Amino acid sequence: MTRFLLIVAAAAAFASPGSAQQPAPVRLNGDGVEVFAGLLHFHGLTPATPAEFDQSPPAERVILHVGTDRTANARYRRLTRETLAGGGSVLWAGDDPDLAGVLQDGTRLAVAGTQATAADPARCLGGDFRYPFLVPRPLDPAATALLVGGVALPDPAALLLSGLPNVATYFPSVLANVPTSGKYAWRELASLPPGTAAIGRPTARRPLVAVTSSGTGAKTHRALVVASGAVFTNQLLAEEGADNLAFANNVVVWLSDGGRRKSCLLVHNGTPVPRFDTVTFQQLPPKPPIPPIPIPDFLNPDTQAKLTNLANETLGKLEANNAFNRLLTGDPDEDPDRLRKVLKWIAVAVVAVALVFVGRRLLGARHAADHTPVPRDPARPGPPDTAARQREELLQRGEYRGLVADYLRGWFAACGAPAGPDVPEISVRPGTPDKPVRAALRILWGVAFDPPPAAGRGAARHAVPYGRWKQLEPLIHAAQAGHEAGDWRFAAPKEPA
Description:
Elements (H helix, E strand, L loop, with lengths): L3 E5 L25 H9 L3 E2 L2 H6 L5 E6 L7 H12 L3 E5 L6 H4 L6 E2 L4 E2 L17 E2 L8 E4 L2 E4 L20 E2 L10 E5 L5 E2 L2 E2 L5 E7 L7 E5 L7 H4 L6 H12 L7 E6 L2 E2 L6 E5 L17 H20 L2 H7 L8 H28 L22 H10 L3 H14 L11 E3 L5 H16 L7 H6 L3 H20 L2 E3 L7
Parallel strand pairs: 2-16, 3-4, 3-16, 4-15
Antiparallel strand pairs: 1-18, 5-10, 6-12, 7-11, 8-9, 11-14, 12-13, 14-15, 16-17, 19-20
Helix pairs in contact: 11-12, 12-14
């Protein structure tokens, strides 16, 4: 609901005691509709005489009946009927049972005309059984959808009571013969609380008290029938703890189609209301934004000086009150061993911190072996990988001999060299340094084919840890590049004579 500030002339609001602009006090009747008319004025609806209202297009009309029309004025009923049929908006709020001359839609929707009271004080305003609350119908999107242009849209009428559980009535009546189909297709909006009784007799299981109707097309009508005119009276609109003002505001916005319909005829107890501005509303100004909390600049010399003075003052007060000494020793009469206990816990804390520090240093001093796997060039042919478990164990031990030997044996085989402990005959292209090539191939051939020696120093030289692999890697790349460039090759084996 739009936030309002109610300005009643009787309160002489916003006028100084001696001001000449102070309005004359006006006493409002609790059964009147001046507050409801003020809502109409706030939303831009203008009061029209019956003659002016009769000349306006029906689709732009809003006619409101509040209370009981004991005179059964035929002119107002005709205007209501024409407004509803022409696509305008109609509110009928009262216990007048005669609706046949207003609707004329082939149905017999009527007000029972009997006063009802509630049995549960918790469902009444102030616990008074004469003021039962409306019980909104639970929202059902499928049941409250309007078909507009082939698209199902939510019916705004179903939201008139949304979030408003405390809309009060006063000795309400109930609706009878509510049709669910026909020209206007009335929809249930609210009922009275369970256990409501009418003149001592139980009513229907769900006694309906408010229904709505919304049309579609070029002449969309909007209608609300409430079997209680007290809902829109001054007493309940201004009652603290009731949601009637919010409900009335929703009704005005819905019937006026958001202010599109301006011509309005408000009939109270059969008499038109000529003025809508006896009570006026003003929209509350927006709340000022919360100023941002300034962040202190700790590099500012003035800020540093203030912080220093504050710290000195705090420490001075603590020293003057002997706070630090009493923190350690406490009150000798209450706990003479306090100092010893405090020192003991300080010693425990120091030892714990020292253990944590030493433990972290020991863990940080351990050398974590770098187990980078041997890179394989997928473009070069080679034997298939060894078993995953064996490979993982080798890497965990930091021993690369098996992986490097498998790689080199596969590469030598691809180059046409026969396997064996001796290096095959090598043919070096003229112009290529002969000794470095042969020395590199002897080293690589030994890694690939030398058998592992027994445990001892030989075993250590035979191993290929990560550091040894990093030494062999450029040697392997150089030998592969020379072979691909044709600088050297394995000589073809000599055929036996």
